[in-house]
Amino acid sequence: MTEGAERFMETVVPPNEDGAPAPSREAYWRKRLGRIRLGAEPVAEQLERYRRVTITFIAVAGTVGLMFVGLFTAFRQPVVGATVALVLMGPLMLVCWLDFVRLRGRVAEYQRETEGEVRKDGGGPGGSEPPPPAA
């Protein structure tokens, strides 16, 4: 056997007998999902909580930006205040929102993969179970 084929065979880990994802895939997803904890609570609930935190952070940063505008408006320089607010708070809000969008995409990818494993194992919609009887 060639060296490349041996390396390939070493890296392929079959799924467990109980249908759980292979340990290497689970470790991959734990690393890729970052803040989302697998097995702790449903991933959708964690993502919803992260979305609420993102919205709250954006609201707080926006409020601080409006305070800058208000402060500079009191000294008759609202354009300078808006510029300062945009330069200081804009990147924070943008990075926070982009991080959430990136995490949401990764969670969707994880859910598609795990749903595909359930279907391959015969459970869930699209599996090998017979359809329910018609009434």
Q: How would you sum up the major sheet? A: none
Helix content: over 70%
Question: What class do helices, strands and sheet pairing give?
Answer: mainly alpha
Q: Give the rounded overall mean pLDDT.
A: 80
**Unreliable segments (pLDDT under 50, ≥5 consecutive)?**
8-14
Instruction: Calculate the terminal CA-CA distance, rounded to whole Å.
Output: 57 Å
Coarse morphology: elongated
Helical region count? 4
Proportion in β-strands: under 5%
N-to-C order of helices and strands: HHHH
The whole-angstrom Rg is 24 Å
How many strands? 0
Describe this structure in words.
- With 135 residues, the protein is an all-alpha fold.
- The protein has a domain of 73 residues.
- 70% of the residues lie in helices and 0% in strands.
- It has 4 helices and no strands.
- Helix 3 packs antiparallel against helix 4.
- The chain is elongated, with a radius of gyration of 24 Å.
- The termini are far apart.
List the main descriptive attributes of the protein structure presented here.
135 residues, mainly alpha
Question: Secondary-structure map with pairings?
Answer:
Blueprint: H1 3-11, H2 23-33, H3 43-74, H4 78-120
Helix pairs in contact: 3-4
Q: What is the compact description of this entry?
A:
The protein is mainly alpha-helical and 135 residues long. 70% of the residues lie in helices and 0% in strands.
